[in-house]
Amino acid sequence: MKKILALIMAMLMVFALFACGKSDTTDTATADEVATEEVNVIPEPVDIGNSTVELIKTEKYTPFEGGESMLVHIKFTNNAPLATTASKEMYITAKCGETRVLEMAYQKEHSPEGWDNVEKSVAPGEAVELVYVLGFADGVVDVTLQSVHNTIPEKLEFSVDTKTLG
Asked: Which residues, at least 6 apart from 127, have a Cβ–Cβ distance to it below 8 Å?
């Protein structure tokens, strides 16, 4: 009788170990899936001060051999009572891990259409498409668009996996 009871107890312990092992694997997979879902997602528009900013798209840009960049297309809407420019209202930062991804400056013939709209005067209630040209980093790039004044907590934040850019 003791042997049968010991065998049943041993089997229960084995099943308990299998059950614990499965739940840990599932939890890890779920966390990985959540992290993957947050990359390449277009966030909702954000009001930053007297403007609304919205991510339109990101894409790889190669104007000439060896000139890889990443383009970030943003819709900038002026909600202020006076005309303004995006460069007076906000700035962009990007990081790939701990490495800062810098804004690129190409000569006019190599720059994408819309890149100079950050200096364009935008009347109250009007919108313009901005194109930020960032250096190309191989991996996930975390991008933040925020107020130049740094007193406004609202930010447009998103992540881009550059391996998926065409």
From this structure: 75, 76, 77, 78
